[in-house]
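Why EF-hand domain-containing protein? Reviewers of the renewal asked for a concrete example.
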Amino acid sequence: MYTSVVGMRTAAITNRLFLHQRHNGTFRVVTTFESMTSTVKRPRCIMSTTICSQQRCFSDIAAGAGTTSGTGTGTKTPLDDSLVSNYKSIPTALEVARVGGVWALTSAKRDKLGELKAALTEGQETLDDVATEEELLDLYFADGLNLIAKVTDTASDTKNTEFYQIHDNGTILNEFSTWLDNQLDPSLPDTVSKSVLESKLEVASAKIDNLLERLPTDQCLVSVRDYLDPAVVDREDKQNNISSNLDSNDTFNMDATSFQDAVSHFRLLLAKSAINQVLKSWKTLTTVSDADLDRAAVEGIALKSDLDTLSLSKVFAFVQKNISGNCSDRLTAAWNLLDRDGDGSLDQEEMNEVVHLCVRIEQEASQALFKEALDIFPVRAPLSAIESDDKPSAPQGWRQRRIEKIAKKNLVQMFQQSCKKHFEVEVEINHRLRCIYSWANKADQDNKMKSVLVDDHGWSGRKRYVELSPKISESEFREVQEIHFTHLNRIGSETITSFRENLWVLQGKGRERKELLRNSALFLSAVSLIDFVILML
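Here is what the prediction returned.
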């Protein structure tokens, strides 16, 4: 497999097929709607009467000034007739990008990438063309992890029903899925206490550890740098009208056993991460929101703020979606897990927790996969090492071991920073969720704030007014999310693509430092030579 993959890499580099100009698609992480260079040069707002009025409207809605204030110019239609009375037009992605002021369309990283791309010379089509062999290994490493995450994000590995019969790793996933279904006893209550849930999930986590041993990392992740999405090469080939030298034997086969083992390994890590996050989020999952408490008080229902039990079937269904589903399926399962009353709608805080829960699971599993793949192959091995069928030996000398250790430490820290900052800072997840809630056409309470009088059960016996915000259903959430927050459909590849762009920035700054030192040395040498000539005269 190494020979064919290296031939594909060599031919691809020769033909300059690696034109990594990311757009809003499978591998795009930046939230802009244009290429990097056009984003840097394009003004944020066109100063006209119409646009200015729209900008004020978008800003008011985005800030959460009210669910009924403002009008938009979107063209979407309501989901059903019940929304017509208070239907608001949802702004399109193009309108938000044109007006600006909603979320940032540029950042320091994007500006830096634009500068590095502008500095490319003739014949250099991408930043990969100016990378050294060691830097290419890091970029190829990110490409391999990205492809694994992409497959799990879209569930392209489990869509085919024959998958479980053809691949041994499919049998492993099917074995765990069947085992998990058998853990539900219909004769017992579905709601369980914290201690019971912990014991059951600990058994499930131990089961996952046993299955992970049947997919050892030294077999499925050793060739992670060889994994390259063939669709990327084909798409860039068509976009640039370049004739490819790739033979059919040089095209990476995504049905290869090692790659499918890597995907299944990552799915097991996702399931284990889901179990860990559920246990850590017990208080959040069992705490009733203040709005639900007020609604229950109005209806005369006594409701405790903290529940003692959780639905076991919903927890297992959430774990199942991490084994076989895509990002959308996982979000739906998490939505059902937070939906305690079963009406299909959540408060804004619960909606936010659903999204953050899915992101935390993906990031925890991605970091575990990153460390495992990093330890299985020397980071600073020569690029020619991927041509050999034998795994390169670990560095022997103390200096080589130190360089290897520092390189791994830096890569791990950089990936952790990418996981921490990408959604929080670059994507602005909290602000996007506020906009989704404000722009959604919520049927609950006719999409209006509702003032209710609640009895205070304290010693004073007073009553108080509270403002109840409308709840949002998953379909209403999806209506806006599919326009303005498509990152949730590719959480894993979003984070890894951000890490790859950080590698580009780091490598570019390193080249700039070397060029600065070289120019400084040349300048000092020239000045010294001139002084010497003057003194000799």
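DSSP finds 21 helices and six strands in the chain. This is the kind of structural detail the renewal will allow us to pursue systematically.
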